[in-house]
Design brief:
heterodimer, A: alpha/beta, Rossmann fold, 6-stranded parallel beta sheet, 61% helix, B: mainly alpha
């Protein structure tokens, strides 16, 4: 057993080194390889050191898992990455819950079933199961199987509250209770599964970055709890790392939307839209053509592209890169401004642009890019809306007031591409579109960029 | 291993996690999620042990857990590699 634990420590060190290498895109890929070697060491050490294992059974399980996992990993499109991570979170949580359940059955009624062990098993089963069902709902919403809109009904909070109370009561009863506690254990399992669903369905599509980060954190917490069940350092350290990572990302996403975690989880933002829609005042905008946009760009030195999720929906990443290449060949400086909540998960937009071969040095986050708008000649806003709405800075009555935004309006000219004048996710009009230095080019992002590319070449 | 030791390990690991993960740039947040996701597949260790120690039901639960955790590890590391391969300089 001594060597096994040593192997787990080695695996944990490799995980930490691997994550450390993620601090730069240059070293990140080797970091991922290092972490995967750590996993291999942990698996081999476990298989070798435990006697009487049914190797055939384990091999069958691992082969099935490898085929499914590899198929997902090879086939998934970059736009579908959020749902892929969601479903993987679910499998991780599910695995932890199953391991804890197996341990409960094996220790049930034996002297080894201490109060502490039962308590921690209940915790592991609870977090793991909730992660499992919650992740599948998140997956369904992102994939379009379940409505992306918040699903709300009367008394929802009350029902969730009652479920939590029931869960805690059953958990305590199983931990300290008498011989009836097997049924209570099943009760915990079922209520945790239901709670995972009821907590996730009221959350809208645009809040998904927060939910996925949170579920990521839960899958780590579940693994750590299972580590306590098995008294296994490898699981505890890895689970703690993942839990911390998920919490940090959750926090970054909440800050990016200027909302508290409680507000995202219990707020169901979709409801606020109706009131905001009533007082829509008309903004007079200047509609323009791609030829005109090409001429404005021709006179510019520094251009900042602001991609929103609309860009990814229109599959226009490659078209953006072509326009950017053309502008660079004309001697212009190009940067990309990436808002923390652009896309459907943390860093999603960066991956989509990297796929289109946009060099990562040009991708700038909120803090880096905002000072750059002061001497920017043209900002091109593509399928982004709320994240460039200046009302967030000054209009205290706006639902997005206080949200950190990209200061595109400080550029000399702002070119905004949108399909229609429909308001963004928060359901509010964007005063930026009526500004004197803003021109609107309506149309599908991909078509517009393709035409713009042609117009730039013909200058 | 006693309780205090294992709790110490847990708490220290959380601190290490916070230290290294705050240094990951926003550009790499998606690979960070899928990569850390793969690491949470470490539950596979528990799953392998569960197939042995937990009686007949436990063996089957362990098998399903092995499948789930393997999907997590293999899929997670592979897709992270696929993404990181795309991040290029000029």
């Amino acid at each position: 057993m001594g060597y096994t634990n040593l192997a787990y420590v080695l695996a944990a060190i490799l995980f930490i080194l691997g994550l450390k290498k993620l601090s730069s895109p240059k070293t990140a890929r080797s970091g991922n390889t290092i972490a995967s070697v750590g996993m291999l060491i942990a698996i081999v050490a476990t298989v070798v050191s435990f006697e009487l294992l049914d190797f055939k059974l384990i091999a069958v399980g691992m082969i099935i898992g490898t085929i499914i996992g590899a198929t997902f990993a090879i086939r998934v499109e970059m736009t579908q990455m959020p749902q892929m991570v969601a479903i993987f979170n679910g499998f991780g949580g599910g695995a932890s819950a199953l391991v804890a359940t197996a341990e409960f059955f094996s220790k049930y009624g034996t002297p080894e079933q201490t109060t502490f062990l039962t308590g921690i098993i209940i915790l592991s089963v609870f977090v793991g199961t909730l992660t499992f069902t919650g992740s599948f709902i998140a997956f369904g919403k992102l994939q379009g199987f379940v409505s992306g809109k918040p699903i709300v009904f009367g008394g929802q909070q009350l029902i969730n509250g009652l479920l939590v109370v029931a869960l805690v009561a059953m958990g305590i009863y199983t931990t300290y209770g008498s011989s009836m506690d097997m049924n209570m254990f099943y009760g915990v399992l079922i209520v945790a599964a239901i709670l995972g669903i009821t907590l996730t369905i009221p959350i809208g599509g645009a809040d998904m970055p927060v939910v996925i980060s949170l579920l990521n954190s839960y899958s780590g917490i579940a693994a750590a709890a299972t580590g306590f069940v098995l008294m296994n350092n490898g699981l505890i350290i890895s689970g703690a790392l993942v839990g911390a990572s998920g919490l940090i990302l959750t926090n970054i996403m909440c800050k990016g939307m200027n909302r508290s975690l409680a507000n995202v989880v219990f707020g169901a933002v979709g409801l606020e839209q109706e009131t905001a829609g009533d007082e829509t005042q008309r903004i007079s905008v200047k509609s323009s053509t791609t030829e005109e946009a090409a001429m404005i760009l021709d006179a510019a030195d520094k251009v900042i592209v602001v991609p929103g999720y609309g860009l990814a929906v229109a599959q226009a990443q490659y078209a953006v890169r072509e326009v950017a290449d053309q502008l660079e060949s004309m001697g212009k400086k190009i940067l990309y401004a990436i808002h923390p909540v652009a896309g459907r998960m943390p860093g999603h937009m960066n991956v989509l642009l990297a796929e289109a071969n946009v060099p990562y040095e040009q991708l700038k986050d909120l803090d880096e890019i905002n000072p750059e708008f002061d001497d920017c000649d043209v900002a091109i806003v593509l399928g982004a809306n709320d994240v460039v709405n200046p009302a967030a800075r000054h209009d205290t009555s706006s639902p997005i007031y206080g949200m950190p935004i990209l200061d595109v309006d400080k550029s000399r000219t702002v070119i905004v591409n949108k399909r229609t004048m429909n308001p963004g996710f928060a359901g509010i009009q964007n005063e930026l579109f009526g500004f004197d230095n803003t021109i609107m080019v309506f149309g599908d992002a991909k078509d517009m960029l393709t035409t713009l590319h042609k117009d730039l070449k013909e200058l | 291993m006693d309780m205090i030791n294992i709790l110490t390990v847990f708490i220290l690991a959380i601190f290490v996690g916070f230290e290294i993960i705050t240094k990951v740039p926003p550009t790499l947040h998606t690979p960070l999620m899928s990569g850390s996701n793969a690491i949470s597949g470490i539950a596979i260790v528990g799953a392998i042990i569960a197939t042995k120690v937990s009686g007949e039901i436990g063996t089957w639960l362990g098998l399903v857990a092995v499948i789930f955790a393997t999907i997590n590890c293999v899929g997670g590391f592979m897709v992270t590699d696929r993404m990181l391969k795309m991040f290029k300089r000029k």
